[in-house]
Specification:
Elements (H helix, E strand, L loop, with lengths): L2 E4 L9 E7 L6 E2 L4 E6 L4 E5 L4 E6 L6 E3 L3 E6 L19 E4 L2 E4 L10 E2 L10 H10 L17 H11 L21 H15 L3 E9 L1 H15 L9 H15 L5 E3 L4 E3 L5 E3 L1 E3 L2 E3 L2 E2 L7 H17 L14 E5 L18 E16 L2 E15 L5 H16 L4
Parallel strand pairs: 15-19, 19-20
Antiparallel strand pairs: 1-8, 2-4, 2-7, 3-6, 4-5, 6-8, 9-10, 10-11, 12-21, 13-14, 15-18, 16-17, 20-21
Helix pairs in contact: 1-2, 5-7
Length: 409
């Protein structure tokens, strides 16, 4: 039985995805759960797993192709089974297509599966949004370009080919070590990160305050949790990062002006805390959100933080959870890397982001000329001075410090 591999629709706003790498080749044996290929949207990167056992009978798109969502990318089945009727743009005896309002939809799953692709019968050029953006940015007239996408749609590969014909650019794959350097094209995720960081610094008034907090209470709680887990009486392995996020949420309740978005002519202040958490993945930085984090107890919050981080690393996070507008405030932890102080960049339109640094030991006056060392953690709050003044920002950071120092588990 033939099983089509369909490009998923990752979020309501995603229309196309780019295949970045094939992990399996045509003719190879695949099993359920095997990663077939990696792909990217305009927000994140993902892996596509096989949902069936069999041979990878055919592959309809190469690496680098921009593929509309809900379109067949490949087919899995047994040797000798027919595959052409599953190729995008082909109509086999098994498929009945219905046209409604200029939109082509597959009435029977498993064949061409081209849905919500506008027909070009009205004389308009059919071109993907990404391809159009690239062409217009380079000043390229795309009206006479023959599209290689489904139903003649112009995709980003077509624009790149046209640009290469217009002005030669070195092929990074041909560079040798003798040249003294190598070049590698930016991934889609890297381009997004670069654009977001540049836009943030260019379009906001960012200022960073640094403060330290005594983490003796957190370390005691962490020790208690570890002992419980070792004795099989603990329910959840709660990390220091989980505890600090819990403290941040409490502080945000007291200082709602930090739990907001700056929207040029107005400030949107949220009644609930939607906590963004920066996650380092092999594909680049991702910032998923924990919705309604203020409604969770510490154990539930820890579970959710672990879940979204693991989902990001596996590459199957819901893109809607990565929208900068989805979170009301963000936390970024570089403590594990030994960073003692840094300046986190705000994820606009949010008005603030907290950087968590490493723990160091600092001397304090214990009285009578005696000094002792206490463990302190660095806290770096970057805020948008257009939305928050220095005084309230400092009080908010101090509240986080106090929540950490009086933490009780």
């Amino acid at each position: 039985m033939v099983t089509p591999v369909i490009m998923p629709k990752q979020g309501q706003s995603v229309e196309t995805c780019i295949i970045t790498r094939w992990l399996k080749r045509k003719g190879e044996v695949v099993h359920t759960g095997d990663i077939l290929f990696s792909y990217e949207t305009d927000k994140a990167a993902f892996d596509m797993e096989s949902t069936a056992d069999g041979l990878l009978l055919d592959v309809f798109f190469d690496e680098g192709a921009e593929v509309p969502v809900l379109v067949n990318v490949a087919v899995i089945g047994s040797a000798g089974e027919e595959t052409e009727s599953y190729r995008p743009g082909k109509v086999g005896d098994k498929t009945e297509q219905v046209k409604t309002g200029g939109v082509v939809k597959a009435a029977t799953p498993g064949v061409s599966q081209i849905q919500e692709i506008q027909e070009g019968g009205d004389g308009k050029v059919r071109i993907s949004p990404r391809a159009k953006c690239l062409a217009e940015g380079k000043g390229l007239n795309y009206n006479n370009i023959a599209g290689s996408g489904p139903n003649g749609r112009i995709i980003i590969n077509d624009i790149e080919e046209a640009l290469r014909g217009k002005s030669f650019q070195p092929d990074a794959s041909r560079l040798t070590p003798d040249a003294g350097y190598t070049e590698q094209p930016l991934s889609n995720v890297r381009k997004m990160i670069a654009k977001a960081m540049h836009t943030s610094l260019q379009n906001s008034a960012q200022l960073t305050h640094h403060m330290s907090a005594d983490v003796s209470s957190l370390l005691e709680a962490r020790k208690f949790i570890r002992n419980e887990l070792a004795a099989d009486t603990g329910k959840q392995d709660i990390s220091l990062n989980d505890m600090i996020c819990w403290c941040v949420i409490k502080a945000l309740r007291k200082f709602p002006e930090a739990n907001s978005h700056f929207l040029d002519d107005r400030i949107k202040t949220f009644n609930k805390v939607h906590l963004g958490i920066a996650v380092d993945t092999p594909r680049g930085l991702m910032v998923p959100v924990i919705k309604n984090a203020d409604e969770m107890d510490l154990i539930k919050l820890s579970q959710e933080l672990n879940s979204v981080a693991e989902t990001c690393r596996k590459g199957n996070i819901n893109p809607e959870l990565l929208q900068s507008t989805a979170a009301s405030f963000t936390v970024s932890n570089l403590g594990a890397y030994g960073v003692e102080m840094f300046t986190p960049v705000i994820n606009l339109p949010q008005t603030g982001i907290l950087g968590i640094c490493t723990i160091i030991h600092r001397p304090v006056d214990a009285g009578n000329g005696v000094f002792r060392f206490i463990p302190v953690i660095g806290l770096s709050l970057t805020y948008d001075h257009r939305a928050i003044d220095g005084g309230p920002a400092t009080l908010f950071l101090k509240e986080i410090k106090e929540q950490i120092e009086k933490f009780r588990f």
